[in-house]
Design a protein that fits this description.
- The complex is a heterodimer of chains A (about 525) and B (about 250).
- About 0% of the residues of chain A have low confidence.
- Chain A contains 23 helices and no strands.
- Chain A starts with a helix and ends with a helix.
- By secondary structure, chain A is mostly helical.
- Chain B is built from ten helices and ten strands.
- In chain B, α3 packs across α4 and α3 packs parallel to α5.
- The C terminus of chain B is likely disordered.
- Chain B is α/β, with parallel strands linked by helices and about 250 residues long.
- Classes of the chains: A mainly alpha (about 525), B alpha/beta (about 250).
- Chains A and B meet through α13 and α17 of A and α2, β6, α3 and α4 of B.
Chain lengths: ~525, ~250
């Protein structure tokens, strides 16, 4: 036996569980270090947030104990909850799977190693499933724990069921992405997958809002028509997921097995398409589109104009931005209808002006999205810093471009509303401007990562938590606008909270350096 | 006239990266800054380009205090980093017009120069393709054209030939020589010693943040004593900074 053969026989085998464990650890480390908890006191922060969420979860669980539902209603409720959570997870999974098509860094390198593509795909699949289930775990686990403390230990089935939903959704997301990739190429796949994810997400979200969209009795009648006819009927195959969620061991084991099998089958079945697709992405071969308006002059003289034009052009060309913006605006629909019905506006009540609070919420969300895209999408930020342009001009261009995006989307609804309810205009504009300013400043200080590769660029390390903080600002400004429209001085309270919160987000000198 | 004068420049991170560097580059001079990995070359260039603030010392560009009047100094300088900074969603023509706009170049002049550089570098047929699909060499050439479009008086180039094939490297070297002939000054770092040997008027060798040697190739050879006048720059470099393994130790 020669030296090479001897070395090969004694070396650990590449592929299999050891490699999977190594890659998974690498992936988790990247995600952890890019998150809010990746700093020096990350564990302490995580424990603190966990305790806080559990306290809230316990309070909510106490409220739930007063609700008594018949067995068939429980099964229907659990099924609808699973459909809602699973649908939104599916939407997120499709979105995140398509983001793999933007990943040209470690993906190319990993594929150049002797690790089989199926292992890389399996780890990416697990990472996406983890990311997709994370927020739901944060939201639902404290509630499940609260219910368990109060005697409903069967509801601990939420833990494995969230994992099952995330795995199945991610497998489907990967399958959709790679089928599209094979059929239509990298560029179109990204757009199609984003559109698909948006449609699923919007449909599920609107489905979950039927009690806001329809009169309650119509909504209840509609959903009850799907309920199992009797206790015996609730043991049918279609109710298995609900029974698993409620802690029945048999259905739970079955669904966990199905999800794990689906993950293994996806990794094995799609590995070739994954490798081919990843190579196309890394090579960038499918993306060198020509600008239809060839030789058109885009940038004029003067740094301010050039910077603004550049930001607007990059925003316009940012992949999937239309889908993302739709995500942020779709939430406005149930909010408007709820306010409409709550204020008795459908019967011509005097509270029509209260609707002015609705665009405030969306304006802030859009502002944070657009400013984050201009920050994260600035691939040559250092080039601009070497130009004879002040920092203020660079910031102003980003703020102006993001504001243009917000007002382009909201101009028609806000304008129409202003014409029909002129009384509401001052408060609504104050709310919109305040919220947009707050979220733009937050995005400048703490840009939210839009895609996976942004986690590496997010040096201030707040990860997706920025979106939670930003939503808090949007909610605060919406409440403040509501109060202003009612003529109450209490409007000052949420505004104060929003401004104080923003101040706390300001990066320290060390971070700025 | 002195294009660049650096005096007592210091910058520390966890350890001193640049430690009391003194340097001057004349107008129309091609200056090569060499050194082993981690010697402080890139940190020095980033301070000249205005991307890092030194802990102490001064930087003067054509008589302008670059630390006190950053904007005026930046008007005269172009910086080319080792990793080409490019917007993938822009075409080369759009990128060049954008860079020209940052330096307030007249749009007509910018357009003419963009065409001239892109044709010279063989990128004109790709002028309306987005940079996302470009190879490393095409990206590097686009960024180089961007660095030249505002006709800088001082070019700061960090490893400009990395990743270029022989033909592209020749194009870039010719372009740089033409700029020097036209009166521009160049400060370049490279690990390809043959480039410094062929192009540079003077060479500075930096080690552990300090200037270990400075002068023309003949001057550097002379530091080795009699009988070393046939040494290559590589011989001189290794003699002055030691072999990489020794330096690391």
């Amino acid at each position: 036996m020669n030296d090479i053969a001897l070395a090969e026989s004694s070396a650990p085998r590449i592929g299999g569980l050891t490699t999977l464990r190594l890659l998974l650890r690498h992936e988790i480390r990247l995600i952890w270090r890019g998150s809010l908890f990746g700093g020096r006191h990350g564990w302490m922060l995580l424990i603190g947030i966990g305790i806080l969420l559990h306290a809230i979860g316990y309070g909510v669980a106490l409220g739930f104990t007063k609700v008594h539902l018949a067995g068939t209603d429980q099964v229907l409720g659990a099924t609808l909850a699973l459909l809602f959570v699973g649908g939104l997870m599916l939407s997120q999974a499709v979105q995140r799977a398509s983001e793999l098509l933007d990943d040209k860094t470690d993906l190319g390198w990993l594929l150049s190693t002797p690790v089989p593509p199926r292992d890389i795909l399996a780890v990416r699949l697990l990472a996406v499933a983890g990311a997709v289930s994370l927020y739901w775990l944060l939201l639902l686990v404290p509630l499940a724990d609260g219910m368990a403390i109060l005697g409903r230990r069967d509801l601990l089935g939420i833990y494995p069921m969230l994992v099952v939903l995330a795995l199945l959704g991610t497998c489907f997301g990967f399958a959709v992405t790679f089928v599209l990739l094979r059929l239509s190429g990298v560029r179109r796949t990204r757009a199609l997958a984003n559109g698909f994810a948006t449609v699923i997400g919007a449909a599920v979200f609107l489905g979950g809002q039927t009690r806001s969209l329809l009169p309650p009795e119509v909504s209840d009648r509609f959903w009850h028509s799907f309920a199992p006819a009797s206790e015996a009927a609730s043991h049918g195959a279609q109710w298995l997921p609900a029974r698993a969620l409620m802690g029945e061991a048999g259905p739970l084991l079955l669904l966990v097995s199905v999800a794990v099998s689906a993950a293994v089958a996806t990794s094995w079945g799609l590995q070739r398409w994954f490798a081919a697709g990843a190579q196309a992405v890394v090579a960038g071969s499918a993306r060198a589109g020509r600008d239809q308006r060839a030789d058109r002059r885009v940038f004029g003289a003067g740094p301010r104009r050039a910077l603004l034009r550049k930001e607007l052009l990059l925003l316009r060309r940012y992949p999937g931005l239309t889908g993302l913006a739709l995500y942020y605006t779709i939430y406005l629909v149930p909010a408007i209808i709820a306010i409409w019905r709550g204020a008795g506006l459908h019967s011509g009540g005097p509270g029509a002006k209260l609707l002015g609070a609705a665009p405030v919420l969306t304006a802030g969300e859009l502002a944070r999205l657009f400013i984050s895209v201009t920050m994260m999408g600035d691939e040559a930020a250092e080039l601009i810093r070497t130009a004879p342009v002040g920092e203020a001009a660079i910031r102003m261009a980003k703020l102006a471009a993001a504001s243009c995006g917000v007002f382009a989307i909201l101009a028609i609804p806000v304008g129409g509303f202003s014409l029909s309810v002129p009384d509401a205009v001052p408060a609504m504009f104050a709310g919109v401007l305040g919220n947009v300013a707050c979220n733009l400043q937050l995005g400048l200080w703490r840009p939210a990562p839009i895609k996976r590769t942004d986690l590496r660029r997010d040096r201030r390390g707040w990860g997706g938590l920025v979106n939670v903080v930003g939503f808090f600002f949007s909610a605060a400004w919406s409440i403040a606008t509501w109060q202003m429209l009612r003529g109450s001085w209490l409007a000052a309270v949420p505004i104060g909270f929003a401004i104080a919160g923003l101040w706390l987000c300001k990066p320290g000198h060390a971070e700025e350096a | 006239m002195t294009a660049l004068r650096i005096t007592g420049l210091r910058k520390s991170f966890t350890r001193p990266a640049v430690d009391g560097l003194d340097l001057s580059v004349a107008r129309g001079e091609f200056f090569a800054l060499l050194g082993p990995n981690g010697a402080g070359k890139t940190t020095t260039l980033r301070m000249i380009a205005g991307l890092l603030r030194p802990d102490s010392g001064s930087i003067s560009i054509f008589g302008i205090d670059a630390l006190a009047d950053k904007i005026a100094a930046k008007r005269l300088v172009a910086w080319l980093p080792e990793e080409p900074l490019l917007y993938e969603l822009l075409t080369p023509l759009e990128y060049l017009e954008f860079v020209a706009g940052l330096w307030s170049v007249d749009p007509g002049i910018a357009r003419r120069r963009a065409q001239e550089f892109l044709e010279w570098l063989g990128l004109w047929p790709h002028r309306n393709e987005r940079c996302a699909g470009f190879s490393r060499g095409m990206r590097q050439k686009t960024v180089l054209a961007g660095a030249l479009i505002h006709d800088p008086k001082l070019l700061i180039l960090d490893e400009p030939l990395t990743g270029l094939d022989a033909a592209a490297a020749r194009d870039v070297k010719d372009l740089l020589s033409a700029r020097v002939a036209a009166g521009a000054s160049i400060v370049l770092t490279t690990h390809i010693l043959e480039v410094a040997e062929r192009l540079a008027d003077r060479i500075g060798i930096i080690a552990q943040g300090r200037l270990a040697a400075l002068g023309s190739l003949a001057d550097l050879r002379a530091t080795g004593g009699a009988g070393r006048d046939r040494d290559t720059l590589e011989d001189v470099f290794l003699r002055l900074v030691g072999k990489p393994a020794a330096a690391a130790a």
